Amino acid sequence: IRFWSNIPFITMPLSRAHGKSFAHRSELKHAKRIVVKLGSAVVTRGDECGLALGRLASIVEQVSMLQNQGREMMIVTSGAVAFGKQRLRHEILLSQSVRQALHSGQNQLKDMAIPVLEARACAAAGQSGLMALYEAMFTQYSICAAQILVTNLDFHDEQKRRNLNGTLHELLRMNIVPIINTNDAVVPPPEPNSDLQGVNVISVKDNDSLAARLAVEMKTDLLIVLSDVEGLFDSPPGSDDAKLIDIFYPGDQQSVTFGTKSRVGMGGMEAKVKAALWALQGGTSVVIANGTHPKISGHVITDIVEGKKVGTFFSEVKPAGPTVEQQGEMARAGGRTLAALQPEQRAEIIYRLADLLTDQREEILLANKKDLEEAENKGRLALPLLKRLSLSTSKLNSLAIGLRQIAASSQDSVGRVIRRTRIAKDLDLEQVTVPIGVLLVIFESRPDCLPQVSALAIASGNGLLLKGGKEAAYSNQILHHLTQEALSIHGVKDAVQLVNTREEVEDLCRLDKLIDLIIPRGSSQLVRNIQKAAKGIPVMGHSEGICHVYVDSDASVEKVTRIIRDSKCEYPAACNALETLLIHRDLLRTPLFDQIIDMLRVEQVKIHAGPKFASYLTFSPSEVKSLRTEYGDLECCIEVVDSVQEAVEHIHKYGSSHTDVIITENEKTAEFFLQHVDSACVFWNASTRFSDGYRFGLGAEVGISTSRIHARGPVGIEGLLTTKWLLRGDNHIVSDFSEHGNMKYLHESLPLPQRNTN
């Protein structure tokens, strides 16, 4: 028992054993009992007179949704004073008689001041109305709410504490949402914050301390504190260097500079942090977030419970390694150092990595074996994904060859002059290639992707964040270790970072200040999810690989079955595998058509009939549900077209602009197809599977892009570069080129420096 103001009270509730808070955001979805604290700035309007009804309705909707999921929700709310102030002002204006207003004169009426209203009177006038509003809103979701008004004495007196505790438990048992507030109509003026100098003692003097005390008293799993700032910053929000703190740990207070408190309310951010730390010590997890931002307030509570990276999460468990934000900064700094190296030094790093892949083959394969065994035991991967996960000696040898190709072709990638212009005498302009910045590459079940992408990032001077699937954790770990070993020969180990924390992909896609480009490598669903989640960061890639092969009426019998078999059966899970086979109508019921069908049956390819193809058959295979389907397995659709023009139109309507092929001996028809199909890769008499960075001679690829800007098709080193302009002058100013100036623009093209072709 401790003492405050000569009144004894208990620092931790008698009925609660010391609990353990959640260590990671991802665990918040398991929170059963939740307290939501609504700050004055959240509940009230900007003029501090009246309630923000739209925000309040959104919060009630989220709380109701979580309550209906079986959680036990409690609300600690402000707003009674503001609501009462609105009502009392209205009453004062109405009480002034028309005669008094007329005698005061028109000008004086305009300047008539409303007297300052005492806060306790406002609270008394506003509490009933505030509760009536909550009741009306919760009724829309068939949820009952109950009001509880408390003061500090209710926590100091043991019997009152037990009564309060019993009342709250009974309300929760009956699926009622308790709405708790300090009884501002009778509370004494606020006292100094002396009892908050440590986290062992807390008394109720504002709704922050009330929410913390209540959360611990009720053994709450999660306390959500909504304010008018995004969370806790390392310096006052709005200052130039202020950074949002994602996770705050006890003992970090010294690294934070607190600013002024919010426009309304009793406590500032410092009071919130101290109350949060007290609740954390009592076993309750805490998140401080923004409840006023119009873009996020409609889902801020549910996002927090789902474990999304919103606001500042208070945790007692510090991760062993750096945070993803720190990794992003390390990759940025390391990438800039990498870009400043000589081309021969970057190539040397890649050659070293290629050697390590073969020299450390046994260790790599042993780690990969662990991943395969775990995946098979858990049964969580389909056979095509298991094949992607598997590494072999031949795969590692191919990887090493590809990396050496990258090293050899990267000698003049960064800093290459692509345009030179003489603007005027002694004023020369150059456009040179530079790295994009920091890349985030997210890949599934493909550990071989890690050294490929790392080599391309090194060659192009980019910093790199890698997020691999957990099914390849052991393989990714050793491959990243070898990558950093290679980088260390020139002191740029930090340029490539492997994200091992529990960051969700959606959270990574929000780090727009750290990441310049996102490259997803995986299923079409993964790519679509990333494209949807990315906020302000461009995404390079393709969401689907719906590749077509069109067999023309002039196709060679010898070539058709070979190309189709390779396109569909060599690796059906690949994004460049055949998904729709278009047959010219004249080939139906010919020996060539029969050979195609027989070959597909032998290869155990399931055939789906397009609408037109099905109409030609008495007994057709199952009709396709959609002509825009990526099967990713030994399945394909067959459809009939009347001409090459119709084939092109079909591809444009149902394709994904990835890779499309024509098989024909008619050069004119082939050229028409090549010129008119608007896809990233268009081939004549060649398998769709050639759509690959290694097969194109790029050494490797970070992915295949179907976007219209920057890079398209297999993306190698060139696709990871952008440009900047360098202008070299000698005391030049724009006014010298005006009508009355003494200089003239020349705009002469200058020859480019000779490229290194070795």
From TrEMBL:
GO terms for biological process: L-proline biosynthetic process. CDD domains: AAK_P5CS_ProBA, ALDH_F18-19_ProA-GPR. SUPFAM superfamilies: ALDH-like, Carbamate kinase-like. It catalyses: L-glutamate + ATP = L-glutamyl 5-phosphate + ADP; L-glutamate 5-semialdehyde + phosphate + NADP(+) = L-glutamyl 5-phosphate + NADPH + H(+). It comes from the Eukaryota. Keywords: Amino-acid biosynthesis, ATP-binding, Kinase, Mitochondrion, Multifunctional enzyme, NADP, Nucleotide-binding, Oxidoreductase, Proline biosynthesis, Transferase. GO terms for cellular component: mitochondrial matrix. Pfam families: AA_kinase (PF00696), Aldedh (PF00171). Pathway: Amino-acid biosynthesis; L-proline biosynthesis; L-glutamate 5-semialdehyde from L-glutamate: step 1/2; Amino-acid biosynthesis; L-proline biosynthesis; L-glutamate 5-semialdehyde from L-glutamate: step 2/2. It is found in: Mitochondrion matrix. GO terms for molecular function: ATP binding; glutamate 5-kinase activity; glutamate-5-semialdehyde dehydrogenase activity. This is Delta-1-pyrroline-5-carboxylate synthase. It comes from Rostratula benghalensis.
